[in-house]
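Why does this matter for the project? Reviewers at the last site visit asked to see concrete outputs rather than summary tables. In response, this paragraph embeds two records directly. Each consists of the residue sequence and, immediately after it, the corresponding structure tokens. Nothing has been edited or filtered.
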Amino acid sequence: MSVTTAELAPSEPTTPPTAQPDGLAPARRWERIALAVLLLGTAAAYLWNIGVNAMGNSFYAAAVWSGSRDWKALLFGSLDPGNFITVDKPPVSQWVMGLSGQLFGFSSASMLAPQAIMAVGAVALMYAAVVRATGNRGAGLLAGIVFAVTPVVALMFRFNNPDAVMVLLMTAAAYCTVRGLPRASLRWIVLAGVALGFAFLAKMLEGLMVLPALGPAYVIVAPASIRARLLHSLAAVGALIVSSGWFVLLTILWPADSRPYLAGSKDNTFMDLVLGYNGFARYLGKNHMGGNNKNPFELPEGYQIPEALKQGGFGGGFGSGPDRMFTGEICFEISWLLPAALVAFTLVLLSRGRRPRTDLIRGSALVFGLWLVIDSALFSGMKAGMHAYYTLAVAPAIAGCVAIGAYEVWRRRTEAFGRVGAAALILSAGIWGFVLLQRDSDWQPWLRWTILAASVIVALALLVLSLPPAARWDRRRTRATTALLIAGVLASLAGSTAYAAATLPQAHTGGSPTVGPARPKQSGPADQFRRRLSTLMGGQADPQLVALLQQTDTQWSAAIDRSSPAAGLELASRTPVLAIGGFTSEDPVPTLPKFQQMVRDHAITYYLIPEVELPDSWRVDPKPADPSSPAQPNAPHGIWRPAGNTEILAWVTAHYTATHHFGDMAVYDLTAPPH
């Protein structure tokens, strides 16, 4: 780290150029070695024991398995190789992992290794962008390090959600924008549009959240007439539309009856998914499970989920508001250097406020600073459907702001502004790191006090060196400033690095993975009940049920309500399982007539439905039945059958008898003669 920081100063620290030329001086030997160490170290850390995460999120893992077996499933991101329904996101992430499965065979390693390699690519792009912005490779190395030691990065670039490829593409768009700023390059800004188009195909509107930062930064900074800048921006938008629109057009032109249903949409169209379920409906809190027939998690009449179970996460989420980025699980995943990044962005704007409009350093700070501010505000205002790991989308912005801000105060380290600014950066990172570690006070308690003490001492020393009496020892003061800044950088990164390191060896599975050290398993009644519902949520399936599915020879071995349990059964049995109603049971497929036809065509062997015996402690005073919420068909009193499509459930239970019960799962043989 000392080598990295020591080279942050340019040859003429007080008179930097307004814009760096496109060509950079050849890297010196130590710079090449440092970059190689950074990239190889990132690869080693992220690839190490990557199989510990097993199938990660089984929902996406099932789509990867399907894509490794069938080309149409790969193209559309189908949940099953029978191509009944897709996952609820576009397929770019599944393309990468599915192709890896086709090349190397489907496994945890072949699925997750591409994600880890994407981390190396993102680190390289952060390095390249900041080097282009500042003309200094030390600053670029710092940007790559900050990104790599962010806990949510260590979590999600070893996981199989689409966020990793989305953030890689967003970072690529930021790099292309920075490359395009010095000479108002049409080529680079168009490439930024292409990158954002594919980011859209990774996670829809979230992939475009960086757009309100990149567009204004280019229009403000690029050295060309306003007409040229606007025309270039329009060309970039056109490139975005073309690079994403071809897939949208494909879903329109491809006959709907010969492709999988686009999960999450109400009418089997891509744009309904973009604007509704995965767009404004999610952001505004308008998504509610049960749009098909009823809420699949609604208990039978006379029963109620205890409040303690709800608070424990059965239906929980994150409160919205201006403090969201600094509270709960979110703060541990992303906020370690968030205050320092905001301070750094402010310092660069103050330091370079009188520079020409085309100043590249300030323009690059706008790229990352606007990205950070806009996206943080959007996340803070999101009403529902928020997962903490979504904040991975601002990790490059934090790294870019911190690195460019650190470069600027280093450049002015012989001045009071540089020393005071550096003290502010170090204090903001150190104090906030102490606060976060205090919230996890049982883990490494010595670390938070060490970070706080080091940060305060370094900051006070820098402030003392800024006082007029210290000027008489100018040479010694410069050397002391250098040593203090190195110590301050180490202290600033210590908390984030430690938490990221604690994240790497932990097994992360399910839909909401978390960062940090291992936590003891809870053993209360609520946690015991959650474990009983593991199959319902896509967890470990009963071995006898798996063996039964493996003996089938129909197009789908079974049908079950919701995509998560279908995905878990697919991965366990390596057989296609039909997901009724998609992820939330809201998707209007299959209709009852369609399902009946599939049964007559012998396309499905079994129908599966959880039958969970509810504790007596959950009983409440009975209320008059709600006619809009019919009772669960043929369910004995106290038995919960969580199904969104009650029409199919009623038809199956009326015409077939359960032949097996494995734990809480009832199995109906659809190949038997109906009643």
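We now turn to the second protein, recorded in exactly the same manner.
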Amino acid sequence: MNFETLFHANFSLLDDAVTDWATLVRNLGELKKDAETDLHQAADKANWAGMNQQVSKEFIGKTAGEFADAHTQASTIHRILVDALGELKGYHRQLTTAVENGRKKSLSVFPSGDAFMVTSSIPPQTAAASEPDRTADVTALRDEIQGILDKATESDNSAGTVLKALADQSKLGFSDARYKDRDSAAKAIADAEAAAKILRKNPHDVTNTELTSLNSMLAKYKTDPLFSEKFATDVGPKRLLGFYAGIADPYQSGYDPARGEQAKQLQKNLGITLGRATLSDSDRMASWKKEMIALGQNQLGIDDASNPTGFGVMSNLMRFGDYEDQFLNDYGDKLLAYDKKVNGEGVNLWVNNVNQADLNYWGYKNDRGRDPMTGFLQALGHNPGAATEFFEQPDGAGSTVDKDSEVNEHLRYLTKERVWVPDITLDGDDGQVAGRTSLGHALKAATTGYPYDATAEAVRTGGERRTAATAAVMEQVAYLYGSADGPKMLHDQPEMAASLGQMAGAYIDDIDYNLSGLGDHARDAGDFPAAYGGTRANFGNQGAINFLSVLGQNETSHGIVTSMQHVYTASLLDAHPPTSATSYDRGVDALSMEAEARGILDHARVQQAAADYGAATEDANKSLGRSADWGKVIAGTVVGVGVAALPVPGSTAAGVAIAPIAADFGGEAVNTFIGHAIDKAVDGAEAKPDEQVQLTSQQFYSKGVDTLGESYENYFSKFQEAGGRADSQQVSQNLKTIYEATGSSEDDFRGRAPYKD
């Protein structure tokens, strides 16, 4: 900012700009409101079908979001312009005042190129001999004016920097970056530069105090768009990876616990910050992402952490954060392509005695972080959009997935071909494979639309998030684990059981629909309505049976699916009280379908317990006893719009199970079931820890029938006429027959045989 520009400044154009932006903000605010209420909410309530559900509804949601982002960006720009205009007008007044005060002291100010000159306006030849030296006054005025110009320049440059950074965030559409004023945005950029400066140091020279300061800044700005982009691009991919490896390496000389705690927080804070940075569309960030991926298979050329590869470090950082979908998919494509070249039965490239790059501080005992696939899959687990895309169904698949060629290449490799090895410490669980747990997390996110560790409150307020794309992933999962190889796959991959159970439970409405009717015919969509825009996962009748029968073999997945089936059935009973002939029929069909699904699950559980321990043995009976207590896991269920969140075992590490419900909110049947579950949980808490419930297969089936009986009584208890009709039609006996007919009397016909070594 030079003297002449500021002194003769005409702010009319900037005034007009501020006024125009204020008008734009108001108009966009109205458009944002209309887009949300008239477009988005209306679209969510509409009964979409076919391509309209898959394309139009999603497009409308994204469009409404763009209006919201446009309003946010316009508001931020308006506030920055107001700040800049106010400051520049202030500096203009200060400058004109300074010049006028100088004139009163007979000092003149003249422009001189881009600079200025201050002189005395009293000619030397006319000055009295006694006139004091004017040098001090000239210098003082010159310094005052220069100070004003410096501050005006800083204000102008700062506004320009912030506005350009905001514009660079999104080349197409609008950024959701929100700042209350120009100074807060400028400070975010300045603090990013300060944080980046620490990372440009040798990590061994960085003190714990500096690490604490770095973590504080990263934690403060971890979701700030301008900070994250500036920080990431200033540091650069290779230096960033080398810095973290140098800080986190637990085997370096002089390592101490305090530094280890700082390294743990650095892993999380860096991961979240980098994730936010990848959402930027700036040219610098685009280059950053390409360079990071290119570094993947190459070693970093450092002395720390066994000289790790780029994949080895970045995969541990991306365990945390919300990353751009395309970046994660591009990264994953390169990682899997390289992994296929080096993974095999021999010495594992990642997990071996030479590689001591223990770069993961979270769940360290069972996951040292040496296998980069684990961290990458955890990233997908936190980024459902990217996960759904990564495991998308290949083009050309039929209406039902029934052959390997219709399975996503990544999914087939990770579930059937890759050699997984434990990455545990001496104190870890022997045989535990963290990577397969992470694979389950990624698939749960891909099929439900939620991060795998989403909270019950997030699900309650978020509602249904399944789409045709998530259902297409679920079809592939059901095909793989319901195939002839399914029992062995689940037996060899016990870490997958909880996630598979939750995935099946999330689609229990579609599974029930596929089970209904005669084979693949005579289904009634009114019994099990499509819950997400007129579409549903198509497993086929036998495919649904096979998938349930495999999940029933495992104690964990059996309990989860059974619980979610019961919640869904209760919601159907809520939605169809037996007050009319149609509702009565729907209620009876719901009870019948639970009897069939439960029969498949319980039959598989009994047969697998016998295969594992021997029929009627004490261990088999204990296993059945544990499986009979599935209802206890329902205590604490939260019901939202169209979904229920169940805190299943392991929920601390794996979020909640998300079950569909047939009504907007749970009614009496759902709440009664939850209440019974709470009572059972309390009873269980009072039991001695060493007391093991033991049930024979006969007793196990009897408890299953009893549970169906409770549902039957609760449904008809307040409706005597309907109850009498049910009695005359022997509905209760039919339910028992359906349940038991899918038990041991149909061993050869109801799904996959139990796994046997």
